[in-house]
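Researcher: I'd like a structural prediction for the single chain below. Treat it as a standalone chain; there are no partners to consider.
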Amino acid sequence: MSRKIIHIDMDAFFASIEQRDFPHLRGKPVAVGGSRERGVVAAASYEARKFGVRSAMPSSLAYRKCPQIIFTKSRFHVYKAVSEQIRKIFYEYTDLVEPLSLDEAYLDVTENKKGIGSAIQIAEEIRKKISDTLNLTASAGVSYNKFLAKTASDINKPNGIAVILPEEAIEFLEKLQIDRFYGIGSVTAEKMKKLGIFKGSDLKKWPLEHLIDTFGKSGKFYYHIVRGIDNRKVKPSRERKSIGAERTFSKDIADVGTMKKHLNRIAEILWNRITSANKYGKTLTVKVKLHNFESHTKSKTFEKRIINYNFLLQESYHLLDELEPQKFNVRLLGISVSNFSSNDDEQQSSHEQLKLF
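Model: Treating it as a single chain, here is the predicted structure.
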């Protein structure tokens, strides 16, 4: 049975909330996060994007691209609260909601709570409710699978909707530029272009075996999506794969002792998040970002779950030492835990784990 999938993507979500809440920012180039001297842009308004400012860009570069840019502090508690309001609107129509982040989600409305036969009508109603109740805009993509819905939502941004019907999908994909395919990143797109793959019709000429030989397991995914095939279901509960905490410093740190003091606080925040979520992992990762934004990580996987804070902290120290931080000026430190185990039969005690060091 053909499904009806909607992908909703909020427009410049963080920056749009700032412009909504602070009228003096409206119509201005806004960057959430960072400052003129340092930091990273978490989100950029469409006015800033016209100058080439993008999320994850060093804020110093954003300032050079757009000297009139206005930097604002992140207010994640506000963004999260607004995201919850948006999801309440989604749940008016279906329980099959798969959030990808605070500002986007898939909805399966094949069978919906209001008995509406048109997924396009549902998408328009949702966009209107978001606009009327929250004074924010959203873009939507509507199609018969997740890949096409996600791809469609980007076509008429901002504040637009695009629909890819089953009978239109193949022609649409054949004409689509390869760097517009969701799931093909910029590095892979450049590799494809060097191989003569510029749009979907070029990709479609490649046999499955050739794609797998060239791109590994992803080759199978590319083979299917260019043919409009994506059988993934909308999963209403996405399992969290990692929990982390990190901190960016106002000044670069060169002293290892100072780094470890900061690591203490980061570990405390992380441990609170782990215990609140009741998710304990076996893999510990420490990340450092250098003054030039180059990132380095070191990970270690243990036989049993990390269930003791002191163990986590001491092992974080060891991983930091292995990164040889004394050689660098560090601007960011982070710790994360992944590889969660649901094995309730692990009879560890905090005392047993402390013995490991």
